[in-house]
Amino acid sequence: MEHAALELDVLAALAAARTRPQDVAARLKARLKCYRGAQYAAPGRTPKQTKEGAAACKDALTFLATLEGPLEPVAAAPEGLRLAGVDHVLDVGVEGVASHRGTDDSSSTDRNGRYGAWGGATGECIWYGNLANGATGASIVDDLVVDDGVRSRGHRLCVYDARWTVAAVAAGAHATYANMVAVEFAATFENDDAGVEARLRNPPPPRVRGAAAARGGTCWDLGLCRGCALPVKGGTVVELPDGRKWHEACFVCSRCGDSVAGKDKRKKDEGGYIFCAPCHVELYAPACVVCGAKIDGDRINMGDGAYRHPGCKKPPAKKKKAKRRVGPKALANLYAGLDEQPAAGDDPPAQLPRGSERVLPTTS
Protein backbone atom coordinates (compact mmCIF):
# COMPACT_ATOMS: atom_id res chain seq x y z
CA MET A 1 0.00 0.00 0.00
CA GLU A 2 1.34 3.44 -0.91
CA HIS A 3 2.02 5.85 1.93
CA ALA A 4 -0.65 8.36 0.84
CA ALA A 5 -3.33 5.66 0.68
CA LEU A 6 -2.17 4.21 4.01
CA GLU A 7 -2.53 7.59 5.71
CA LEU A 8 -6.20 7.74 4.73
CA ASP A 9 -6.71 4.09 5.72
CA VAL A 10 -5.23 4.62 9.20
CA LEU A 11 -7.35 7.73 9.76
CA ALA A 12 -10.51 5.81 8.85
CA ALA A 13 -9.47 2.89 11.09
CA LEU A 14 -8.92 5.27 14.02
CA ALA A 15 -12.41 6.69 13.67
CA ALA A 16 -13.87 3.18 13.48
CA ALA A 17 -11.88 1.98 16.52
CA ARG A 18 -13.29 4.81 18.62
CA THR A 19 -16.92 4.39 17.52
CA ARG A 20 -16.91 0.56 17.39
CA PRO A 21 -14.38 -0.77 19.93
CA GLN A 22 -16.17 -4.12 19.84
CA ASP A 23 -14.84 -4.64 16.31
CA VAL A 24 -11.30 -4.12 17.57
CA ALA A 25 -11.96 -6.62 20.37
CA ALA A 26 -13.17 -9.20 17.85
CA ARG A 27 -9.98 -8.85 15.81
CA LEU A 28 -7.80 -9.10 18.93
CA LYS A 29 -9.56 -12.30 20.01
CA ALA A 30 -8.68 -13.78 16.63
CA ARG A 31 -5.12 -12.50 17.06
CA LEU A 32 -4.69 -14.51 20.27
CA LYS A 33 -4.63 -17.71 18.21
CA CYS A 34 -1.56 -16.49 16.30
CA TYR A 35 0.89 -16.32 19.21
CA ARG A 36 3.55 -18.97 19.73
CA GLY A 37 5.29 -17.83 22.87
CA ALA A 38 6.63 -14.36 22.15
CA GLN A 39 6.28 -14.82 18.38
CA TYR A 40 3.26 -13.48 16.54
CA ALA A 41 2.50 -14.95 13.11
CA ALA A 42 -0.63 -13.68 11.38
CA PRO A 43 -1.87 -15.95 8.57
CA GLY A 44 0.12 -15.38 5.39
CA ARG A 45 2.57 -12.98 7.02
CA THR A 46 6.17 -13.20 8.17
CA PRO A 47 6.32 -13.98 11.91
CA LYS A 48 7.47 -11.14 14.15
CA GLN A 49 8.98 -11.19 17.60
CA THR A 50 7.06 -9.41 20.37
CA LYS A 51 8.17 -8.51 23.87
CA GLU A 52 5.13 -9.75 25.82
CA GLY A 53 3.50 -12.35 23.60
CA ALA A 54 -0.23 -12.86 24.12
CA ALA A 55 -0.19 -11.06 27.49
CA ALA A 56 -0.36 -7.58 25.92
CA CYS A 57 -3.23 -8.65 23.67
CA LYS A 58 -5.19 -10.04 26.62
CA ASP A 59 -4.54 -6.82 28.52
CA ALA A 60 -5.94 -4.83 25.59
CA LEU A 61 -9.10 -6.96 25.59
CA THR A 62 -9.57 -6.28 29.30
CA PHE A 63 -9.18 -2.55 28.63
CA LEU A 64 -11.70 -2.55 25.77
CA ALA A 65 -14.24 -4.33 27.96
CA THR A 66 -14.07 -1.48 30.47
CA LEU A 67 -14.82 1.31 27.97
CA GLU A 68 -18.06 3.11 28.72
CA GLY A 69 -19.61 3.13 25.28
CA PRO A 70 -18.22 4.47 21.99
CA LEU A 71 -16.25 7.70 21.62
CA GLU A 72 -16.65 10.43 19.06
CA PRO A 73 -14.66 9.75 15.88
CA VAL A 74 -11.69 11.93 15.00
CA ALA A 75 -11.91 14.08 11.89
CA ALA A 76 -9.07 14.84 9.50
CA ALA A 77 -7.01 17.71 10.92
CA PRO A 78 -5.84 20.67 8.83
CA GLU A 79 -2.63 20.25 6.82
CA GLY A 80 -0.47 21.98 9.42
CA LEU A 81 -0.86 19.11 11.91
CA ARG A 82 -0.06 16.51 9.26
CA LEU A 83 3.12 18.38 8.27
CA ALA A 84 4.29 18.16 11.87
CA GLY A 85 4.08 14.38 11.58
CA VAL A 86 5.79 14.45 8.17
CA ASP A 87 8.72 16.36 9.70
CA HIS A 88 9.15 13.71 12.39
CA VAL A 89 8.96 10.80 9.93
CA LEU A 90 11.62 12.40 7.72
CA ASP A 91 13.75 13.12 10.77
CA VAL A 92 13.88 9.89 12.79
CA GLY A 93 13.12 7.66 9.82
CA VAL A 94 16.51 8.45 8.30
CA GLU A 95 18.20 7.99 11.68
CA GLY A 96 16.48 4.64 12.24
CA VAL A 97 15.62 5.31 15.89
CA ALA A 98 12.31 4.72 17.65
CA SER A 99 11.50 7.86 19.59
CA HIS A 100 8.92 10.57 20.05
CA ARG A 101 11.86 12.96 20.38
CA GLY A 102 13.27 14.50 17.23
CA THR A 103 16.99 14.49 16.55
CA ASP A 104 16.90 18.14 17.69
CA ASP A 105 15.22 17.00 20.96
CA SER A 106 11.86 18.43 19.88
CA SER A 107 8.76 16.81 21.38
CA SER A 108 5.42 16.23 19.68
CA THR A 109 4.10 19.25 21.59
CA ASP A 110 6.79 21.39 19.94
CA ARG A 111 6.33 19.98 16.45
CA ASN A 112 2.53 20.13 16.49
CA GLY A 113 2.74 23.88 16.95
CA ARG A 114 5.10 24.54 14.02
CA TYR A 115 2.45 25.11 11.34
CA GLY A 116 -0.57 26.01 13.42
CA ALA A 117 -1.94 26.32 16.92
CA TRP A 118 -3.35 23.38 18.83
CA GLY A 119 -5.77 23.94 21.67
CA GLY A 120 -6.74 21.98 24.77
CA ALA A 121 -4.31 19.09 24.37
CA THR A 122 -2.18 17.34 21.77
CA GLY A 123 -0.60 13.90 21.52
CA GLU A 124 1.17 11.48 19.23
CA CYS A 125 1.20 7.75 18.43
CA ILE A 126 3.95 6.12 16.34
CA TRP A 127 3.84 2.70 14.66
CA TYR A 128 6.89 0.93 13.22
CA GLY A 129 6.77 -2.03 10.88
CA ASN A 130 7.04 -3.38 7.36
CA LEU A 131 4.16 -2.52 5.04
CA ALA A 132 5.24 -5.36 2.75
CA ASN A 133 4.12 -7.77 5.47
CA GLY A 134 0.46 -7.00 4.85
CA ALA A 135 -0.08 -4.05 7.20
CA THR A 136 -3.38 -2.18 6.84
CA GLY A 137 -4.96 0.76 8.63
CA ALA A 138 -6.91 -1.62 10.88
CA SER A 139 -3.89 -3.80 11.72
CA ILE A 140 -1.81 -0.71 12.56
CA VAL A 141 -4.51 0.61 14.90
CA ASP A 142 -4.79 -2.86 16.47
CA ASP A 143 -1.02 -2.83 17.10
CA LEU A 144 -1.32 0.57 18.80
CA VAL A 145 -4.16 -0.72 20.99
CA VAL A 146 -2.21 -3.85 21.97
CA ASP A 147 0.81 -1.59 22.68
CA ASP A 148 3.28 -4.45 23.12
CA GLY A 149 6.30 -3.60 25.27
CA VAL A 150 5.06 -0.17 26.39
CA ARG A 151 4.58 -0.27 30.16
CA SER A 152 2.38 2.83 30.29
CA ARG A 153 0.17 1.65 27.37
CA GLY A 154 0.45 5.24 26.19
CA HIS A 155 -0.49 4.49 22.58
CA ARG A 156 -3.61 2.61 23.62
CA LEU A 157 -4.70 5.41 25.93
CA CYS A 158 -4.00 7.96 23.21
CA VAL A 159 -6.20 6.17 20.67
CA TYR A 160 -9.10 6.19 23.15
CA ASP A 161 -8.53 9.67 24.61
CA ALA A 162 -11.93 11.39 24.64
CA ARG A 163 -10.37 14.86 24.23
CA TRP A 164 -9.36 14.36 20.59
CA THR A 165 -11.55 15.76 17.83
CA VAL A 166 -8.99 15.86 15.01
CA ALA A 167 -6.07 13.69 13.92
CA ALA A 168 -3.50 13.64 11.11
CA VAL A 169 -1.45 10.72 9.79
CA ALA A 170 2.01 10.79 8.17
CA ALA A 171 3.67 7.64 6.80
CA GLY A 172 7.16 7.13 5.42
CA ALA A 173 10.32 5.03 5.30
CA HIS A 174 12.33 3.99 8.36
CA ALA A 175 15.94 2.80 8.26
CA THR A 176 15.44 0.05 10.86
CA TYR A 177 11.80 -1.02 10.63
CA ALA A 178 11.27 -0.32 6.90
CA ASN A 179 8.27 1.95 7.56
CA MET A 180 6.79 4.18 10.24
CA VAL A 181 3.45 5.92 10.78
CA ALA A 182 3.10 9.02 12.96
CA VAL A 183 -0.40 9.93 14.16
CA GLU A 184 -0.84 13.44 15.57
CA PHE A 185 -3.90 14.22 17.74
CA ALA A 186 -5.35 17.49 19.02
CA ALA A 187 -8.44 18.66 20.86
CA THR A 188 -8.57 21.59 18.43
CA PHE A 189 -6.22 22.82 15.73
CA GLU A 190 -6.04 26.07 13.77
CA ASN A 191 -3.92 26.14 10.64
CA ASP A 192 -1.16 28.70 10.08
CA ASP A 193 -1.78 29.11 6.36
CA ALA A 194 1.36 31.14 5.73
CA GLY A 195 3.49 28.67 7.65
CA VAL A 196 1.97 25.73 5.79
CA GLU A 197 2.55 27.40 2.42
CA ALA A 198 6.16 28.15 3.29
CA ARG A 199 6.73 24.56 4.47
CA LEU A 200 5.27 23.12 1.27
CA ARG A 201 7.70 25.22 -0.77
CA ASN A 202 10.74 24.31 1.34
CA PRO A 203 12.27 21.22 2.97
CA PRO A 204 11.64 20.47 6.65
CA PRO A 205 13.75 22.15 9.34
CA PRO A 206 17.40 21.08 9.28
CA ARG A 207 18.19 17.96 11.23
CA VAL A 208 20.34 18.70 14.26
CA ARG A 209 21.85 15.73 16.04
CA GLY A 210 20.70 16.04 19.63
CA ALA A 211 20.39 13.77 22.63
CA ALA A 212 17.75 11.52 21.08
CA ALA A 213 19.91 10.82 18.03
CA ALA A 214 23.01 10.35 20.14
CA ARG A 215 21.25 7.57 22.00
CA GLY A 216 20.63 6.12 18.55
CA GLY A 217 18.61 3.14 19.61
CA THR A 218 15.32 1.39 19.73
CA CYS A 219 13.64 -0.57 22.49
CA TRP A 220 15.34 -3.75 21.22
CA ASP A 221 18.81 -5.13 21.87
CA LEU A 222 18.93 -8.25 19.73
CA GLY A 223 22.64 -8.74 19.06
CA LEU A 224 24.32 -8.92 15.66
CA CYS A 225 22.86 -10.03 12.35
CA ARG A 226 24.49 -13.24 11.06
CA GLY A 227 24.26 -11.89 7.53
CA CYS A 228 25.79 -8.40 7.71
CA ALA A 229 27.28 -8.46 11.25
CA LEU A 230 25.53 -5.16 12.08
CA PRO A 231 23.35 -4.69 15.20
CA VAL A 232 19.75 -5.89 14.99
CA LYS A 233 17.80 -2.94 16.37
CA GLY A 234 14.34 -4.19 15.48
CA GLY A 235 12.13 -4.29 12.45
CA THR A 236 11.38 -7.60 10.78
CA VAL A 237 13.83 -10.08 12.28
CA VAL A 238 14.33 -13.73 11.42
CA GLU A 239 15.35 -15.89 14.38
CA LEU A 240 16.16 -19.59 14.29
CA PRO A 241 15.52 -21.92 17.26
CA ASP A 242 19.22 -21.84 18.20
CA GLY A 243 19.05 -18.06 18.71
CA ARG A 244 20.79 -16.90 15.52
CA LYS A 245 19.20 -13.76 14.05
CA TRP A 246 19.13 -12.01 10.68
CA HIS A 247 17.66 -8.80 9.36
CA GLU A 248 14.92 -9.88 6.97
CA ALA A 249 16.85 -8.36 4.05
CA CYS A 250 19.97 -10.36 5.06
CA PHE A 251 18.22 -13.73 5.33
CA VAL A 252 19.24 -15.01 1.90
CA CYS A 253 20.56 -18.21 0.35
CA SER A 254 24.33 -18.54 0.88
CA ARG A 255 24.76 -19.78 -2.71
CA CYS A 256 22.40 -17.86 -5.02
CA GLY A 257 21.55 -14.83 -2.83
CA ASP A 258 17.76 -15.17 -3.18
CA SER A 259 15.65 -14.26 -0.14
CA VAL A 260 14.50 -17.20 1.97
CA ALA A 261 12.46 -15.14 4.46
CA GLY A 262 8.83 -16.14 4.90
CA LYS A 263 6.99 -19.30 5.93
CA ASP A 264 6.14 -20.13 2.32
CA LYS A 265 9.81 -20.40 1.31
CA ARG A 266 11.66 -23.66 1.92
CA LYS A 267 15.16 -23.40 3.26
CA LYS A 268 17.83 -25.63 4.77
CA ASP A 269 20.48 -25.03 7.42
CA GLU A 270 23.69 -26.85 6.49
CA GLY A 271 26.82 -26.39 8.58
CA GLY A 272 25.66 -22.99 9.81
CA TYR A 273 24.86 -21.73 6.30
CA ILE A 274 21.35 -21.11 5.00
CA PHE A 275 20.36 -22.39 1.55
CA CYS A 276 17.19 -22.19 -0.50
CA ALA A 277 15.69 -25.59 -1.30
CA PRO A 278 16.90 -25.80 -4.95
CA CYS A 279 20.49 -24.92 -4.05
CA HIS A 280 20.52 -27.32 -1.11
CA VAL A 281 19.26 -30.14 -3.34
CA GLU A 282 21.90 -29.42 -5.96
CA LEU A 283 24.71 -29.28 -3.43
CA TYR A 284 23.79 -31.92 -0.86
CA ALA A 285 20.99 -34.22 -2.04
CA PRO A 286 21.96 -37.78 -3.08
CA ALA A 287 21.43 -38.95 -6.65
CA CYS A 288 18.91 -41.67 -7.44
CA VAL A 289 20.70 -44.93 -8.31
CA VAL A 290 17.99 -45.70 -10.87
CA CYS A 291 17.50 -42.48 -12.86
CA GLY A 292 20.56 -40.52 -11.73
CA ALA A 293 18.60 -37.36 -10.83
CA LYS A 294 18.97 -35.56 -7.49
CA ILE A 295 16.38 -36.61 -4.90
CA ASP A 296 14.30 -33.72 -3.54
CA GLY A 297 11.87 -35.11 -0.98
CA ASP A 298 11.03 -38.70 -0.07
CA ARG A 299 13.62 -41.34 -0.84
CA ILE A 300 14.17 -45.03 -0.29
CA ASN A 301 17.38 -46.23 1.30
CA MET A 302 18.95 -49.01 -0.77
CA GLY A 303 21.81 -49.55 1.65
CA ASP A 304 25.51 -48.79 1.36
CA GLY A 305 24.73 -45.08 0.96
CA ALA A 306 22.55 -45.55 -2.13
CA TYR A 307 19.04 -44.07 -2.52
CA ARG A 308 16.28 -44.03 -5.12
CA HIS A 309 13.06 -42.11 -5.75
CA PRO A 310 9.95 -43.94 -4.49
CA GLY A 311 8.64 -43.95 -8.07
CA CYS A 312 11.79 -45.40 -9.61
CA LYS A 313 11.66 -49.19 -9.79
CA LYS A 314 14.37 -51.12 -8.03
CA PRO A 315 16.86 -52.45 -10.60
CA PRO A 316 16.80 -56.28 -10.93
CA ALA A 317 19.57 -58.08 -9.11
CA LYS A 318 22.31 -59.51 -11.31
CA LYS A 319 22.37 -63.32 -11.45
CA LYS A 320 25.66 -64.89 -10.50
CA LYS A 321 26.95 -67.58 -12.86
CA ALA A 322 27.87 -70.78 -11.11
CA LYS A 323 31.47 -71.82 -11.61
CA ARG A 324 31.90 -75.24 -13.23
CA ARG A 325 34.62 -77.37 -11.78
CA VAL A 326 35.92 -80.42 -13.64
CA GLY A 327 37.69 -83.20 -11.71
CA PRO A 328 39.38 -86.45 -12.75
CA LYS A 329 36.11 -88.43 -12.85
CA ALA A 330 34.39 -85.86 -15.03
CA LEU A 331 37.43 -85.83 -17.35
CA ALA A 332 37.32 -89.62 -17.69
CA ASN A 333 33.64 -89.41 -18.65
CA LEU A 334 34.54 -86.78 -21.22
CA TYR A 335 37.02 -89.04 -22.95
CA ALA A 336 34.69 -92.03 -22.69
CA GLY A 337 32.16 -90.20 -24.82
CA LEU A 338 34.60 -89.57 -27.71
CA ASP A 339 34.65 -91.79 -30.83
CA GLU A 340 38.41 -92.15 -30.68
CA GLN A 341 40.81 -92.01 -27.84
CA PRO A 342 43.62 -89.57 -28.38
CA ALA A 343 46.73 -91.28 -29.77
CA ALA A 344 50.10 -90.91 -28.28
CA GLY A 345 51.68 -87.73 -29.40
CA ASP A 346 48.39 -86.15 -30.55
CA ASP A 347 47.60 -82.59 -29.51
CA PRO A 348 45.32 -82.31 -26.51
CA PRO A 349 41.65 -81.53 -27.15
CA ALA A 350 41.16 -77.89 -28.13
CA GLN A 351 38.46 -77.32 -25.49
CA LEU A 352 40.07 -79.02 -22.54
CA PRO A 353 38.02 -77.96 -19.49
CA ARG A 354 39.72 -75.46 -17.24
CA GLY A 355 41.15 -76.97 -14.10
CA SER A 356 41.47 -80.48 -15.58
CA GLU A 357 44.73 -82.32 -16.00
CA ARG A 358 45.90 -84.61 -18.77
CA VAL A 359 48.93 -86.86 -18.64
CA LEU A 360 50.21 -87.73 -22.10
CA PRO A 361 51.89 -91.17 -22.60
CA THR A 362 55.61 -91.17 -23.13
CA THR A 363 57.28 -92.82 -26.14
CA SER A 364 60.56 -94.62 -26.16
UniProtKB/TrEMBL annotation:
GO terms for cellular component: adherens junction; filamentous actin; stress fiber. GO terms for biological process: actin cytoskeleton organization. CDD domains: LIM (cd08368). GO terms for molecular function: actin binding; metal ion binding; muscle alpha-actinin binding. This is LIM zinc-binding domain-containing protein. The keyword Cell membrane does not apply. InterPro entries: CAP_sf, PDZ-LIM_domain, Znf_LIM. It comes from the Eukaryota. The keyword Protein transport does not apply. It comes from Aureococcus anophagefferens. Residues 223-286 form the LIM zinc-binding domain. PROSITE patterns: LIM_DOMAIN_1, LIM_DOMAIN_2. Residues 337-364 are annotated as: Disordered. Keywords: LIM domain, Metal-binding, Zinc. Pfam families: LIM.
